[in-house]
Amino acid sequence: MKKFLPQLQNAFARKNTAQAKNVLALMTQRRVQIMRILAEGEENPVGS
Questions:
Q1: 22 in helix, strand or coil?
Q2: pTM for the complete prediction?
Q3: CA gap 40, 47 in Å, rounded
Q4: How many CB atoms are located within 10 Å of the residue 10 CB?
Q5: Could you tell me which residues come within 8 angstroms of residue 38 by beta carbon, excluding any fewer than 6 positions away?
Q6: What's the pLDDT tens digit per position in 14-46?
Q7: What is the CA radius of gyration of the chain?
Q8: Per residue, what are the HEC states of 10-36?
């Protein structure tokens, strides 16, 4: 079993590369959105 583990991990990694890239892209998009919201908040402070 142990000697098959690296092959198994490689196959798993290859299969999920596209999915991992999608998740990464979504996380990056979300981070950009949050940065924009924070930047807008600094430009327009609440209560002024």
A1: helix
A2: 0.47
A3: 14
A4: 10
A5: none
A6: 777 777 778 888 899 999 999 999 998 877 666
A7: 20
A8: HHHHHHHHHHHHHHHHHHHHHHHHHHH
